[in-house]
Amino acid sequence: MSDTPNARDALPGIDPARIPRHVAIIMDGNGRWAEQRGFPRAFGHRNGVRSVREVLAASAEIGVGVVTLYSFSSENWKRPSDEIEALMQLCVMYCEGEQAELAKENVRVRVIGRREGLPDDVLGALDRLQEATAGCTGTTLCLAINYGSRDELVDAARSLAESVRAGELEPGDIDAEAIGERLYTAGLPDPDLLIRTAGEMRLSNYLLWQISYAEIYVTELLWPEFGRAEYLDAIRAYASRDRRFGGVQQAASAPGEPE
Known about the structure:
259 residues; 6 strands; six-stranded parallel β-sheet; 8 helices; globular; alpha/beta
C-alpha cells in the first residue's frame, strides 16, 4: 500500500472535490469466479482479498475517507455450512494477517453489524483488529459483518423506543438526525458511491438508509477481477456525474438535501 502515486497522477483531470468521501461496495461474484475455474467457492473468497487490498490502497491514495465492504450479510447464514465456515475462517485470517499492514498504513478499522451469532474466534479477531487500529487517522475501513439494513433499522427503532420510555426523548423529537445517530454507521458520512460487482442490479439489504442519495455503479466483473484500475474507473464515472439531490445541479461530492 506504500509508494503509490498521488491522486493527481492516479486520476489526471479529476477535480479533487469530486472524489467521493465514502465508497460502499457489494463484493459479489467470488463463488462464481471460483466455480468458473473448477475450484470450491471458498477459493474465490480467498482471492477476493487481493481486490480488497488494491481498493483500499487506491482509496488512501486518492483521498477516499471511508470504504465500507459488505463482508457477510445476515442472509449469508443460508449458504452451505462449509462455505460459511470458510468465510468465518477467512475473516479471522484477514484480521490477523492484515493487522500490522493496516496499522502501518494508518487505516482505521470499524465493524458494523450484529455480534450475536458470530463465533467467538471471529469476534475476538475483529475486536483485536479494531483495537490495534483505533489510533489510526487515515482511511476508515468499515467491515459490514453479520449485517442487514433492516436489522440495523430495527435496532435503531428499539433504541429510540428505549430513550422515549426512559423520558430522555419526546416522540415528536424523533427526526432523521435522531435515527442516524442510532445507526451502526453513526459518525460516518453517508456513502456517496455504491459499487456492486458481478452485474447484479439490486441493493441486497445493504445500507438502505445511508445510500438514499448515493450514486450507483454496477460492473459485470466478478469481485476477484476488480482491482485498482477498475476501481479508478468507477471513481472517474462517479466524478463525471451531476448529483441533484432532488434540487439543483451540484458537484459530484457535494452533500445534498432531501427533496
